[in-house]
Design a protein that fits this description.
Elements: E1 2-3, H1 12-15, E2 17-20, H2 26-45, E3 60-62, H3 74-84, H4 87-97, E4 101-110, E5 117-118, E6 141-147, E7 151-156, H5 167-173, H6 175-178, E8 190-194, E9 199-203, E10 208-209, E11 211-212, E12 219-227, H7 228-238, H8 260-297
Parallel strand pairs: 1-8
Antiparallel strand pairs: 2-9, 3-4, 4-12, 5-11, 6-9, 6-12, 7-8, 7-10
Bound molecules: 2-oxoglutaric acid.
Length: about 300
């Protein structure tokens, strides 16, 4: 199995991935790790997002930037947001995609506490989302994974985003109801070796998988971005989803202490989604005030009357 070599961000369009060494320095990576460690412990006790459910086989969690994880540590949220929207990260994504994009989501990948598993090979199922962008080959957005401890847990097949599955890949990824999709024999696969603070950018359309070994510490921060044209298409077709539904960005103190460049990056995300979060909140308030009025009246609930 080859170890992936470095590629400039713009090489992602040809090669499916790129590596940026030292995107963050060691001290920043260590501070991010401490924050993520705390959020992981809290998530295990009191998850704010059920995708995936907490359990021994869980290997990722979504929405590290949910403020409930940082209620007693506001400085951690500011640090996390400043890193997630850091200018060098945004610049790398811009060079890789060469089209307009928005923040989508932050996640943490970690080793499971239960049984070890090799991940399953896949291209992300993004449906028709890549049909409405400037460069369909790079899909609907991309993932940026930043190692917070040394990691070579991500594997991918370079340039596989530019074509359909070869017969050998089909045998592994699709055939027989995907029964072989954890095979360790994927032709041409590379394992991306990262030191703390290094980042790999990869397109969702390449064949890829993670490794989830209980005895192999993994703490990898993942920042997902969506192309703006995809975000527009998704809102028109499907409305908010579990990724884009992040209304906490409207809290008045949410950006306290966040670096200006990161604020500007998230500002575009907020400008885009805020009208939809407001609309949803207005609906919730309408129904909750109805419930309060009904409870106060003592009358039988007319909505459920026989
Ligand atoms: O890094 C990993 O564990 C896998 C990530 C993955 O499959 C994805 O982002 O779709």
């Amino acid at each position: 199995m080859t170890i992936a070599s470095d590629l400039e961000p713009s090489a992602l369009r040809e090669n499916s991935y790129a590596v940026v060494r030292g995107l963050f320095d060691a001290a920043t990576a260590e501070r991010l790790r401490e924050i993520c460690e705390r959020v992981l412990a809290q998530w295990r006790q009191n998850p704010r997002c059920d995708n995936p459910p907490v359990g021994p086989q869980a290997n990722y969690l979504r929405h590290l930037n949910d403020p409930e994880y940082h209620r007693d540590h506001p400085e951690d949220l500011a640090f996390l947001l400043s890193a997630t929207g850091a200018p060098q990260l945004v610049a790398a994504v811009r060079a890789a995609l060469d089209e307009d994009f928005l923040f989508a989501m932050s996640s943490l990948y970690f080793n499971p506490s239960g049984a070890s598993e090799d991940g399953f090979w896949h291209k992300d199922k993004i449906g028709d989302q890549a049909e409405h962008v400037q460069i369909p080959a790079t899909g609907a957005g991309l993932q940026v994974q930043i190692a917070l401890v040394p990691s070579d847990d991500l594997e991918l097949v370079p340039a596989s985003h530019l074509r359909d599955y070869t017969p050998a890949e089909y045998e592994i990824c699709i055939a027989d109801d995907e029964r072989n999709n954890r095979s360790n024999e994927m032709p041409g696969a590379v394992r991306v070796a990262l030191a703390p603070g290094d980042a790999v950018l990869f397109t969702q359309l390449c064949i890829h998988r993670g490794r989830y070994h209980a005895d192999k510490l993994r703490r990898t921060l993942m920042v997902s971005v969506t192309k703006r044209l995809t975000a527009e298409h998704n809102m028109r077709q499907r409305g908010l989803n579990y990724g884009s539904d992040q209304p906490w960005f409207l809290l008045p103190d949410y950006f306290d202490g966040v670096e200006p460049e990161a604020r500007a990056f998230f500002g575009e995300f907020v400008d885009f989604y805020a009208p939809h979060w407001r609309q949803k909140l207005t609906e919730v308030l309408k129904y909750s005030s109805l419930l309060r009025a009904l409870a106060g009246s003592g009358a039988p609930n007319p909505f459920f009357a026989e």
